[in-house]
Amino acid sequence: MTSEAEQLNDEREERALRIVSSENLSGDIRDRPRLGHSDVVELNFIREGKFLFRRHHRTGLRSHIMEVLRPGDVAAEKEGMIRDGLRWFPRAVPVKMLRIFRTRFSTLRDAEIELTRVKVVGRYLGPEYMARSDEFLVDYEVDGGYEPLLCGLQEYVDGEILDPWGPLDSEYLTTLFRRIGPGGGREEARMWKQNVRKRAEKALERIGRMIREAGLVPDLAGVGNLLMTPGGNMKLVDINNISRVSLENRIPLDDRRYPACDKSIQAFSLLEQKLLQRPVDMGDPVFSTFLDPERMREVQSIEIEFHRSMAPTNSYFQGAH
Ligand SMILES: Nc1ncnc2c1ncn2[C@@H]1O[C@H](COP(=O)(O)OP(=O)(O)O)[C@@H](O)[C@H]1O
Ligand SMILES: [Mg+2]
Questions:
Q1: Exposure letters 73-112 (e unless 16+ CB within 10 A, then b)
Q2: Ligand 1 pocket test target in 6, 55, 58 with most atoms within 8 Å of CB
Q3: Where are the domains of the chain?
Q4: Residue 143: its pLDDT value, please?
Q5: Could you read off the pLDDT of 232-251 as tens digits, one per residue?
Q6: Which of 217, 235, 210 minimizes the C-alpha distance to 225?
Q7: Whose CA is closest to atom 5 on ligand 1?
Q8: Does residue 9 have its Cβ closer than 6 Å to ligand 1?
Q9: Which end of the chain, N or C, is less surrounded by CB atoms within 10 Å?
Q10: What is the pTM of this model?
């Protein structure tokens, strides 16, 4: 996403959040549009310590993503530092990211299934292609009782959004290279792009194996779920909402009635086509099932319905899940 698009998203979000917060008076953090430091340290399972919690500038629909920061780094960011006689304001880099999953699990077993799936995805992708996270289930004290809540303490990934629905052509990758800023001229950009494609081949091969062997696919469809690192690795940061892949005709919907599995396989096929510059193998039952034109049309109408049902926040949340 361009910075103008991100800014536009921020403005839309501000508006959307104002609407949500005026409607929602619940004390449950899962219903709250945003959290701040004091909200986090008030949670019964968080010990107030030496770190500051700050809402990450990018947001999604399903999780609260909080930066865990050193107070000294935040002070330097605000007040600046003098270097070579000049004042500069270094951005505070998170030590970790705290993820708080908004989804309510009907049973503890459902929460455990989600945890097991995260582990399986982690085994296939490895630390190169997935942001490592220590996921834990806590007893969240709310409204006089306790409920299971899924949280994660995740590695912070420095990078730019790799949007599977974007063009992903050479020009797109050059723009990413310039924005990520590993530095260098034309030749460096060419080598970086070559490396991106080489690494993407490995990452996609692993995802393909996971789909075929384990029958699981992470949410590749949400914009922001994959980041491109300065080193040229595409990395999955959104590790929740993993779908089971079945080759049946029925289109599976997730808890928010979004066709996450179909959209993720579509995103996977686009990444393959555009980054590896080759057509997908339609003889493969996964692609022939999920990329069947009639099925894709049906998925599209379910998706339109999903965005409509998300109103009034739909303008912001489109694509960000
Ligand atoms: N560990 C991380 N490092 C850097 N950015 C992250 C990390 N986790 C999430 N983000 C960013 O925060 C936004 C929301 O995160 P995501 O995991 O997609 O949440 P949701 O479950 O709400 O979709 C995304 O744009 C994502 O790129
Ligand atoms: Mg997401």
A1: bbebeeeeeeeeeeeeeeebebebbbbbbbbebeeeeebe
A2: 58
A3: 160-317
A4: 87
A5: 999 999 999 899 999 999 99
A6: 235
A7: 157
A8: no
A9: N
A10: 0.89
